[in-house]
Write a structure and sequence with these properties.
The protein is α/β, with parallel strands linked by helices. The protein has one domain: Carbonic anhydrase (Beta-carbonic Anhydrase, Chain A). The protein has eight helices and five strands; from the N terminus they run H-H-E-H-E-H-E-H-H-H-H-E-E. A five-stranded mixed sheet has the order 2-1-3-4-5, sandwiched between helices. Helix 5 crosses helix 6 and helix 6 packs across helix 7. The model has no long low-confidence stretch (mean pLDDT 90).
């Protein structure tokens, strides 16, 4: 992918889908991961084609599982891929400054942050602010039938995070309305790194 190539939200989504398929099929190409690529973007600047808000779980390095390289992805990672003022600032920076055509909010299976809320265990007080959106998502699921409460809350957390980002970001709203940005929800299987796309908000 050329750095000066303007992509549509759909084209950016397809790059992620194709990259994840290559990786999970054992056919990863490891594109743009050489030292020369790093030197090039250090000189010319980065131009990521997607921003991804994901969990900080060490099992799921985003550039590897989407078979991307240096400068391709603007990665925002936090425990439980939740909303916070810091996350909002990072998302606005990606959408407003780098003009990424796609924002992905991605949860995953067996998430420690999700499990801590669903299981009701005690967590350090310093972690509580990061769990606020997850707790709100869990309350939304109260009484809803589910064979896997953690999976249901993880999915609800993705959608609630997207909702809060859009509600609080003038940058996202403006670019969505102009058709310049797509927002997609996804869930990743931690056992095999396969990504399941839930929906794309805009094309």
């Amino acid at each position: 992918m050329a750095d000066d190539q303007a992509l549509s939200p759909r084209e950016a989504m397809n790059l992620l889908k194709e990259g994840n398929h290559r990786f999970t099929s054992g056919m990863a190409e490891h594109p743009r991961q050489d030292f020369q690529r790093l030197k090039d973007i250090a000189r010319r600047g980065q131009q990521p084609f997607a921003a991804i808000l994901a969990c900080s779980d060490a099992r799921l390095p985003l550039e590897l599982m989407f078979d991307c390289g240096f400068g391709d992805l603007f990665c925002i990672r936090t425990a439980g891929n939740t909303f916070s003022p810091a996350v909002l600032g990072a998302v606005d920076f990606a959408a407003g400054f780098f003009k990424v055509p796609l924002l992905v909010v991605m949860g995953h299976s067996d998430c420690g942050a999700i499990n801590s809320v669903v299981g009701g265990g005690e967590v350090p007080s310093s972690i509580e602010p990061a769990l606020a959106t997850i707790r709100d998502a869990a309350r939304q699921m109260t009484g809803a039938p589910s064979t896997d409460a953690s999976a249901a809350v993880a999915t609800a957390n993705v959608w609630l995070t997207i909702e809060r980002l859009i509600k609080r970001s003038a940058v996202l709203t403006e670019r969505l309305q102009a058709g310049q940005l797509g927002i997609a929800a996804a869930m990743c299987n931690s056992d095999n790194a396969k990504v399941r796309w839930l929906e794309q908000r805009k094309n």
